[in-house]
What we know:
Blueprint: E1 19-21, E2 40-42, E3 61-63, E4 82-84, H1 92-105, E5 111-113, H2 126-134, E6 138-139
Parallel strand pairs: 1-2, 2-3, 3-4, 4-5, 5-6
Amino acid sequence: xxxxxxxxxDVSNGLILNTFFMYSNDLTTIDLSQNGNLQRVNxxxxxxxxxxxxxxxxxxxxxLNTNDLATFSITNNSLLTNLELRGNxxxxxxxxxxxxxxxxxxxxxxxxxxxxxxxDLSTASFAAYTNLVARGWTIDxxxxxxxxxPPVIGTLNPAxxxxxxxxxxxxxxxxxxxxxxxxxxxxxxxx
Length: 191
């Protein structure tokens, strides 16, 4: 349904629905949680401020350009190879997470459109962006800058509660301009 000024729709009874197009309308919200078989969705040019697609693991194509999305997640959508989110209000953290999720899904030859959002990609998605491009993805924004600043190492405090079978280690946190994701603990140079 295109350009019919539809502002609401109930698709909860469409349990076997695999394609849903309702673009260029006035939708502000839609519930797709009962449509687990959806593979292709086009809701571009509406007034959506949020959309939960966590119950739609079969999605391969999702077009949400020109809405008002302020947050969005594809954590449960590992089959996506065409994701269009241009012209929304997505912040940097969401855009970085989307790129990192797509990379983690491991698919090749996809399309990602995320230009004209509230945020831009940051160094937190540099490696994932590079991986996606190497696997044949087209992405409509330039690569983020790589992280060139090493973290500042925290300080290890003396061991406490030392017993024959264990001890307690504490340290001040490391800091970084991008973020610290993990710590490696070694004993006698062995991880």
